[in-house]
Design goal:
Blueprint (H helix, E strand, L loop, with lengths): L2 E4 L6 H14 L3 E4 L18 H9 L5 E3 L7 H6 L8 E5 L4 E5 L17 E3 L6 E6 L2 E6 L12 E6 L2 E6 L5 E6 L3
Parallel strand pairs: 1-2, 2-3, 5-6, 6-8
Antiparallel strand pairs: 1-9, 4-5, 7-8, 9-10, 10-11
Helix pairs in contact: 1-2
Length: 183
């Protein structure tokens, strides 16, 4: 199974257009959105091309191929604009020998882990910082932010393909971080 991950869109139309362009080319079965879809939030500056209604329209065209979780900036009002469910605080994708625990990162995250088994993958956003590493017996993966990157990193997204998780720069496609997960 090939998956694409995007987090912290924060209503950026150019970032959404780029994500969907890459998703169409990626061959991924699902686009996993890790929260903070439409609203920029009170602590962030407006992202480039802030247009939440247009972002919703573009994402709705792919609704049948999106798995999403709620971020700390998402609300029921946002859900009213979106045709795919995005108010669950977490989701799981079950693979043959492990699971991907999908969350935004503000409720569950590296400092507040859910109950996970050895080899499971915590997939989260929220920090806007890319991460691909094993901590103890659990893999941690954060694709960074597609619209408001932090820590000097480039805007980025993630791909899972053949048990390799990669964080990839949105614009130049350079690999920012990567790890192999053992099935």
């Amino acid at each position: 199974m090939k998956l694409m991950f995007a987090s912290d869109i924060h209503g950026s139309l150019p970032a959404t257009e780029r994500v969907l362009e890459l998703f169409a080319k990626s061959g991924a079965q699902w686009l996993v959105i890790l929260g903070d879809v439409l609203n920029h939030g009170p602590r962030n500056a407006l992202p480039e091309g802030y247009a939440p209604a247009q972002v919703a329209d573009l994402l709705n065209a792919q609704a049948g191929r999106i798995i999403a979780v709620r971020g700390n900036c998402d609300s029921e009002v946002d859900q009213m604009l979106l045709c795919f469910p995005m108010t669950a605080p977490w989701q799981q994708i079950l693979m043959e020998n492990q699971r991907l625990f999908l969350t935004h990162g503000h409720l569950f995250g590296p400092e507040n882990l859910p109950a996970l088994n050895a080899g499971d993958v915590l997939v989260y956003g929220h920090t806007h910082l890319p991460v691909a590493e094993k901590r103890g017996e659990v893999y941690h993966f954060n694709p960074g932010s597609v619209s408001i990157p932090k820590g000097g990193f480039k805007a980025s997204y993630g791909i899972l393909d053949d048990n390799v998780l990669r964080v990839i720069a949105l614009n130049d496609q350079s690999i920012i971080a990567q790890m192999t997960i053992n099935p």
